[in-house]
Amino acid sequence: MQVATWNVNSLAVRLPQVLDWLAAHPVDALALQELKLTDDKFPLAAFEEAGYRAAAHGQKTYNGVAILSRAPLRDVVRNITGFDDEQARVISATLDTAEGPLRLVNGYFVNGQEPGSEKFAYKMRWLDALQAQLRAELAAHPRLVLVGDFNVAPEDRDSYDPEGLRETIHHTTAERDHFKALLQMGLTDAFRMFEQPEKSFSWWDYRMLGFQKNRGLRIDHILVSDALKPRVQACTIDRAPRKNKQPSDHAPVVVTLG
DNA sequence: ATGACCAGCAATGCTGGA
Q1: pLDDT 10s digits, A187-234
Q2: Feature table: binding site of A for Mg(2+)
Q3: What's the domain range around A49?
Q4: pTM of the model
Q5: CA angle at residue A192 from A150 to A245, to 5 degrees?
Q6: CATH number at residue A127
Q7: Which residues form the Endonuclease/exonuclease/phosphatase domain (predicted)?
Q8: Band of pLDDT at residue A61, cut at 50, 70 and 90
Q9: Confidence at residue A71, expressed as pLDDT on a 0 to 100 scale
Q10: Choosing from A52, A141, A149, A160, which is the catalytic residue?
Q11: How many domains does chain A have?
């Protein structure tokens, strides 16, 4: 089976591209971020016609996440339990797949703008809360996948300019330590289980010909639990949608589980 | 040297993204 993640930067604008992509890549589940729309505007019928069930957690203008799944969804949890948050950034669900239940946690991690800022402090608090949530989720659901836009480039090789951008947003030691903490609780970065091309990125700035010059970051990730790790067969970034007219600035990431 | 793009909201200029 295949699970994918994609920050679409407005589902209202990107819906046709998402449907086109699903037609070409009929993944079993797709996690979306940055819907930028309320749940009453979520295009459920269009996804159902494409063969997917869906659970969404949206808000006006900003953020918003959703899970699409061919298999039935249950036990949907919105946001982080016990963490009071105005922003719609997390949705979790159990997928009843043919291979058994799979817990999918989909996050649109806080950007954080600039180290030292109030938004960065919120990012750190949010990451602390997410860690606690994931410990509980992992204890309850050994077969777990954490996906989304992490807004963290975990290592130097995940950035087009690791020296020039050292300790700037997405590159700080504090953010990378949070990412490492996720790995230490028994999650594995599926992309790095395989040999990958150098300068593999999942996001490119709209400005400065970022994509054309491959000046990007790898900030969209798929982490698998220990129970699922032996089943991971491939993990790739699909750069093709970034070449579309009116593209999202992010590309989809896809994991194949045996 | 600087800023350069895109989306939403709302009303033309701002916020936020990364």
Answers
A1: 999 999 999 999 999 999 999 999 999 999 999 999 999 999 999 999
A2: 7, 34, 149, 151, 249-250
A3: 2-257
A4: 0.97
A5: 55
A6: 3.60.10.10
A7: 4-250
A8: very high
A9: 98
A10: A149
A11: 1
Among protein residues, the one whose C-alpha sits closest to the C1' atom of B17 is A111
C-alpha gyration radius of chain A: 17
